[in-house]
Amino acid sequence: MTAPARRDAAGSTAPATYVDRAVAYWRLAEPIRREWLDHGLDTAPADRVTTEYILSRIYARHHRPRPRFRWVDSPDQAMPLVAGLPTHDQLQQWVMARQPAGRPPLISDIVAGVSRLRGALDECLDNPILTPPSPATRRGESGKVPRKKTENEGRRWPVLPPDEALAAGVPLRVVLRQGVWDALRTSLADGFYLPVRATLAARGRPVPSAWYGQQDAPWIAYYDVARRIGLAQYRRSDERQLDEWAALARSAGWWWPGEQTCVLVERPAVIRTEPVPGSRYGERRLRRDADRRSGVDGHSDVDGRSGADGPIGYRDGWRPPVHRTEVASRVGAAVHPDGPPRAPAVVISSRQLSLR
Q1: How many CA atoms are closer than 13 Å to the CA of 344, on its beta-carbon side?
Q2: Coil, strand, or helix at residue 257?
Q3: What residues contact 32, with CB distance under 8 A and at least 6 apart?
Q4: For residue 123, what are the contacts with CB-CB under 8 A and spacing of at least 6?
Q5: Of 53, 169, 187, 264, which residue is most buried, by most CB within 10 angstroms?
């Protein structure tokens, strides 16, 4: 018997409603979401052995030999080493009708592979609990039940506290999307890597497209939650790939895949965050009062240095001035021109490239 079923059976002799069961599943999802947030803000040194092993497998999947791995201590140190790798604008050319001549860059192949993986995983999210029954079905009425419009047909669902959302008829699938994928994206993309990229781009030089290791957790966590709470069973080959990406997110910082050399960044030594005001799902942002040393949130100064300022500190001492630049929002719009993806794509698209 699953945990939600045990909860239903123990709580009452009456049949559990859809909302009761959906709330029970959400209760199981919450600690897993928090676990992935912790991975995304982890300040422990990277697991280099695991990272290099998984990346070698990713290279091999895309018909490339094992690269030479070049580790650095911050994105700032990486910039001279990744000069010449594709930028977001250059990658977008590979999804246009008239593509550039020659072989696509490796990062384009990886993005396409992840896009296909997400599509395959999404096909397995078919448990009936993910979509509420129609009102007529809930009332036990007979006769033909009108087809309910799904979340993928353009409907904009409200962002509410989870219990309230489910009671209002928001599908569990949407609550999981909002509460896991979107919430982690707010914390790790809007709340971390986009501001850091902004400080690099503010120098006036193009910043090549990257993967973000631990901050790639949002989409990984969404599919991991679904299988761990018993709502999805993926095909073995797809699950192996998901496991690899999950291991990479638990082990690594940012990385830039070149054809011969992969440049990797150690995880930060310092990350200070605070709750996003008014958030529904525990979203975090970089602390505004980060001149103070604090350990209250579990993602704080662990390098032992005193007098350091800024909410982020890398192991070489680089502290990106994320609160002293006005370009963060503009650069964020450039990197994510159409906002966060609302549904996993099946084929490569400009929206998928915008993740990088």
Answers
A1: 25
A2: strand
A3: 180, 221, 224, 225, 228, 229
A4: none
A5: 187
CB 195 within 8 A of CB 322: yes
- Residue 198, classed as helix, strand or coil, is helix
Question: DSSP letters along 292-321, please?
Answer: S---TTSSS--S--SS--SSEE-TTS----
- Supply the pTM of this predicted model: 0.81
Question: Helices (DSSP H) in 12-148: which residue ranges?
Answer: 18-40, 48-61, 75-82, 88-92, 106-123, 135-139
Cα 29 to Cα 174: distance, rounded to the nearest angstrom: 13
Q: pLDDT tens per residue, the chain (356 residues)?
A: 555 544 444 444 445 799 999 999 999 999 999 999 999 999 999 999 999 999 999 999 999 999 999 999 999 999 999 999 999 888 887 766 566 677 889 999 999 999 999 999 999 999 999 988 765 444 443 333 333 444 444 578 989 999 999 999 999 999 999 999 999 999 999 999 999 999 999 988 889 999 999 999 999 999 999 999 999 999 999 999 999 999 999 999 999 999 999 999 999 999 999 999 999 999 999 998 754 444 434 343 333 333 357 899 999 999 999 865 433 333 333 333 323 333 333 233 434 444 45
* Strands (DSSP E) found in the chain: 68-72, 255-257, 261-265, 270-271, 273-275, 284-286, 312-313
Which residue's structure tokens are 């940012």? Answer: 254
Number of other CB atoms surrounding residue 69 within 10 Å? 15
3-state secondary structure of 350: helix
What's the token pair of residue 219?
Answer: 């989409």
Taking Cα atoms as reference points, which of 156, 178, 170 lies closest to residue 279?
178
From CA 96, how far away is CA 112, in angstroms rounded? 14
